[in-house]
Amino acid sequence: MRVKEFQAFLQEKKVDASILVSIGMEPDPNFFYFTGYEGAGALIIPQSGRPLLLAPKMEQERARKSRIKSVKILEKKRLFDSVREHVGRAKKIGMDGSALALNAAKALRKSFRKARTIDVSRKIRELRTIKTMEEISYIRRSCREADSILQQCLKNFREFRTESEAAAFLQHEALKRGLDVPFRPIVASGKHASMSHHAPQSTKLNKGLCVIDFGVKVKGYCSDMTRTIGIGSVPPAQRKKYQKLLGVQQQAMASATDAMKCSLIYDGVIRALGKDAPYFTHGLGHGIGVEIHELPNLTISSIDRMQKSMAFTVEPGIYYPKKFGIRIEDSVLLATRPEQLTKTTKELIII
Amino acid sequence: MRVKEFQAFLQEKKVDASILVSIGMEPDPNFFYFTGYEGAGALIIPQSGRPLLLAPKMEQERARKSRIKSVKILEKKRLFDSVREHVGRAKKIGMDGSALALNAAKALRKSFRKARTIDVSRKIRELRTIKTMEEISYIRRSCREADSILQQCLKNFREFRTESEAAAFLQHEALKRGLDVPFRPIVASGKHASMSHHAPQSTKLNKGLCVIDFGVKVKGYCSDMTRTIGIGSVPPAQRKKYQKLLGVQQQAMASATDAMKCSLIYDGVIRALGKDAPYFTHGLGHGIGVEIHELPNLTISSIDRMQKSMAFTVEPGIYYPKKFGIRIEDSVLLATRPEQLTKTTKELIII
């Protein structure tokens, strides 16, 4: 995706080539963004011309199916030796400082003693914020799948005895459809809901408000949504908070416009929450794409601005410690207007 | 875990304090090892005295439930600013070079312009090899759960039409019990079994030998086991290979003694396999703990030695390309003697 824009940046910065390496259990997001390939390897993006993917022999089938047309399969040679063969004469090299661990960076630099290195991670993360048509279609599908699985979960909710069972249902449905989940589903009932990142437990579902935070991946692209439902009965005061938060969330989504500072959307939420603002303890949202958390940041200190074709979440929440919590989250695309991509009802469902 | 031993190392190396940072979606293993905390944050381990955990406000409940007694919740301040406040005068600082990305390392170093930094990742990985009583109890539970789920899977095996269904069953059972899986279960039937890292497919289960590799996590601690079963009928020649490999595996487990070179256990397997040795194409085993693959390495080139209270796998396999494959794996604890922790039968089950 957007290789040409990245090469224009390399030309502007007089960088001969950029080297992206993926060697861990999970593919590095910037590497995956350009390659669509989940195996280990190195990607060399020269200032102009075709990018080259170096991959080990055991990954050759996957590598040849990647987005990159020039693929070289390594027989025995070590990855960094092969990288040096291809860009050994470069004077200025781009590296991904957000992905490369300190020890791996040291090893890579040994291959390029005479070259200067610069960090290109921020640039790639910025490029990634503006989604292409292809990426938008994957994100739409990802949101549709998440909606469908969540609705199936809500239909079956009476059958679950524990948070774990509800969370397992969500993940299992995704697995059965051949989809990964970008994070373990959160099911936080009763006072557990006051922890925004609660890990589901094998204890009986608590009565009261229950926060369900779930997403899937389609072709590597994430969806993310949260619904808060009621189990048994919900006290009127908590219902009132729910309605208030829902209004705040909808207003925040609608307020996003091209070129707007992301921090302003956050500010609007703080104002609208009024005396509940101290109980809103996390960011308002984040970009979604090949990562579940990417740019732009919708936080108080964000330096990002909204742009058309950005995909992001809007997820205000209020958490009364040891009492209850509410979060409402949608995945949103900034088209001509903000378009809500996750569509499961936000009426307070009582189960 | 083993904070005192780590502090002794810091004293010996004249390191004032070590800083471990976890900022990704997944907790960094070394950070998790000391904290038992899965959220974002920074851990400061001074040369002596109490370690300090810095965590963002949204994680305060989880942070307070962590292993670390001194917790400081950050109100607004940025993580690294707070780190500097606490160890700003340090002259020599330990960092985790295997976990910390280049940019984070740079930012952290800015907080300590005058300090030297050293990489402490190898030391922590070494400390992690010797399990405490608490860790052993988690690993035992993890193995018991894996046994119980695998046995349930075997009982239901006739109901599965595809490898994916069998693999989804294993993962779903784990999820229902509130347990994570450290890797996607492997179910490789017929000639698929000749690929040691085969990804389960949605095609019909093949007849013949079928390799099932599965583990779970309890309190963050991994189990890992493999059984090879027969579907339909298994030719006598393959049964013979199975019995031979089983003998080799049991002998290898029994051979582990304190202070023994891990590479020697591997050598013993090669000798015992005889003419089948060329078909054994991977390592013999690996440590298990907060990671599914950790030290010690049971490979030909391993520099590690067996020590009491190490937990590791013993998993010889033979793979006849495009024909069949067999792997038998147990999780093992080196107590006074090697103790097999995963206990599902290794008699060849035919389903």
Structure explained in plain terms:
Two copies of one chain form a homodimer. Chain A has 351 residues and is α+β, with helices and mostly antiparallel strands. Chain A has two domains: 3-129, Creatine Amidinohydrolase, Chain A, domain 1 (3-Layer(aba) Sandwich), CATH 3.40.350; 133-340, Creatine Amidinohydrolase (Alpha-Beta Complex). Helix content of chain A is 34%, strand content 23%. The first copy, chain A, contains ten helices and 18 strands. Chain A has helices at 3-12, 29-35, 60-64, 79-87, 102-110, 121-129, 133-155, 163-176, 236-255, 262-273, and strands spanning 17-22, 41-46, 52-56, 70-74, 92-95, 116-119, 186-189, 208-214, 217-218, 221-222, 225-231, 285-287, 294-298, 311-314, 317-320, 324-327, 330-334, 338-340. In chain A, strands 4-3-2-1-5-6 form a six-stranded mixed beta sheet, with helices on both faces. In chain A, strand 2 (41-46) and strand 3 form a beta hairpin. In chain A, helix 7 (133-155) packs across helix 8 and helix 9 runs antiparallel to helix 10 (262-273). Chain A is elongated and about 70 Å long. The A-B interface holds A 95, 97-103, 105-106, 119, 121, 162-165, 167-168, 171-172, 175-176, 178, 183-184, 194-197, 199-202, 281-282, 292-293, 321 and B 25, 38-39, 57-59, 61-62, 95, 97-103, 105-106, 119, 121, 164, 168, 171-172, 175-178, 180, 202.
